[in-house]
């Protein structure tokens, strides 16, 4: 990361307003990475660290999986990872970022080629986004959560790890649909949805239902007129 000189923090600050909607990202098959149109692109690698879980939350909702995301310095939610340096290979860069941002013990849980999920191309940013998913035991995931606060970038780039609620509550909105209504960096929301289906953690129908869910409108007096102290 660097100060871009205009008082804005971030490598791609001048193009960060591009790539705001899912149609700005195109899936690129692995075999095409070396095509001329992708040469000279900025590359980034991000990773979903997760554990499958049948745990019943409050004795009601099946957890399905514990998935780690993070709250970033810019207020957006994203996956740990980041830009790959010039001359660095994707996996070395991604493992470096996982250590810097969330203090993952990458000797114990290195991201490897077998964890590869998908790559998206954002033409307006000339950015290739490589995405991986690593399944680890639940107790190891809890250790990562505890250790993340000691990461080099904690408190600056990373403001904390998050777990995703993958259930939907009785009102049809709270839980996963409400989580999806947050602001997401890059195409991390698409990466999440793609990977949930890819790993059969959720079906396409379940994902569509959550994406299309709308909040129950509250029309009570206390929702009028802002903050009451
Ligand atoms: O989790 C993510 N998934 C997809 N794209 C992301 C994610 N996090 C950041 N990005 C995008 O990747 C690029 C690099 O951002 P990031 O802040 O991760 O890099 P850095 O930590 O190396 O500075 C930005 O264009 C940003 O929009």
TrEMBL record:
Q: Which residues form the Nudix hydrolase domain?
A: 40-180
- Give GO terms: molecular function aspect only: 5'-(N(7)-methylguanosine 5'-triphospho)-[mRNA] hydrolase activity; IDP phosphatase activity; phosphodiesterase decapping endonuclease activity; snoRNA binding
Domain of life per record: Eukaryota
Q: Which cofactor does it need?
A: Co(2+)
The family database entries (InterPro entries) matched by this protein are listed as: NUDIX_hydrolase-like_dom_sf, NUDIX_hydrolase_CS, NUDIX_hydrolase_dom, NudT16
Q: Which reaction does it catalyse?
A: dIDP + H2O = dIMP + phosphate + H(+); IDP + H2O = IMP + phosphate + H(+); a 5'-end (N(7)-methyl 5'-triphosphoguanosine)-ribonucleoside in mRNA + H2O = N(7)-methyl-GDP + a 5'-end phospho-ribonucleoside in mRNA + 2 H(+)
Q: Does the keyword Nucleus apply?
A: yes
Keyword Hydrolase assigned: yes
Name where it's found.
Nucleus, Nucleolus; Nucleus, Nucleoplasm
Major location (coarse): nucleus
Q: What are the protein's UniProt keywords?
A: Hydrolase, Nucleotide metabolism, Nucleus, RNA-binding
Signal sequence extent: none
Swiss-Prot/TrEMBL GO biological process terms: mRNA catabolic process; nucleotide metabolic process; sno(s)RNA catabolic process
Which Pfam families does the record associate with it?
Nudt16-like
Per the record, GO CC terms? nucleolus; nucleoplasm
Report the EC number(s), separated by commas if there are several: 3.6.1.64
Q: Which family does it belong to?
A: Belongs to the Nudix hydrolase family. NUDT16 subfamily.
Identification of the protein by name: U8 snoRNA-decapping enzyme
Organism, by scientific name, is: Coptotermes formosanus
Organism lineage reads as:
Eukaryota, Metazoa, Ecdysozoa, Arthropoda, Hexapoda
């Amino acid at each position: 990361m660097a100060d871009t000189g205009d008082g804005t923090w971030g490598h791609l600050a001048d193009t960060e307003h591009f790539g705001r909607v899912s149609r700005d990202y195109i899936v690129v098959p692995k075999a095409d990475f070396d095509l001329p149109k992708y040469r000279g692109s900025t590359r980034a690698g991000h990773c979903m660290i997760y554990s499958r879980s049948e745990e019943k939350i409050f004795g009601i909702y099946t957890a399905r999986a514990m998935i780690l995301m993070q709250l970033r310095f810019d207020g957006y939610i994203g996956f740990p990872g980041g830009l790959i340096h010039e001359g660095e290979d994707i996996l070395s860069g991604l493992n470096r970022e996982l250590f810097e941002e969330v203090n993952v013990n990458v000797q114990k849980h290195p991201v490897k080629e077998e964890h590869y999920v998908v790559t998206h191309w954002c033409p307006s940013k000339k950015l290739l986004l490589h995405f991986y998913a690593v399944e680890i035991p639940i107790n190891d995931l809890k250790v990562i959560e505890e250790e993340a606060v000691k990461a080099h970038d904690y408190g600056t780039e990373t403001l904390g790890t998050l777990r995703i609620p993958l259930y939907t509550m009785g009102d049809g909105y709270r839980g996963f649909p409400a989580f999806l209504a947050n602001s997401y960096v890059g195409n991390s929301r698409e990466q999440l949805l793609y990977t949930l289906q890819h790993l059969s953690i959720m079906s396409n129908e379940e994902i569509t239902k959550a994406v299309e869910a709308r909040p129950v409108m509250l029309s009570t007096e206390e929702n009028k007129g802002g903050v009451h102290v």
